[in-house]
Task: structure prediction
Amino acid sequence: MEEEKDSKVETIVKVSILIWSAALLTLSYWEPPSGKKIVDFDPTFIASIFSASTASLGLSIGKKGNNKKDVIVDNKNSKSGIK
Result:
């Protein structure tokens, strides 16, 4: 029972940090019609906190690739574009 309480508190703290960092990131990029930013700071540190908190909750943010490798085409024998 004690471990379950600790787990719930831990999850609440993680979600709170996630919401806080997401709100600060949103405010750092949002510019209201008046043209004056609400907050003005470098969002790099907050972005790292956001990424860490999503990772601690098991979320993965980013591109999902289908593991295709880039294909390099050899055009030395191609006559396209040559008159």
Remarks:
- DSSP finds two helices and no strands in the chain.
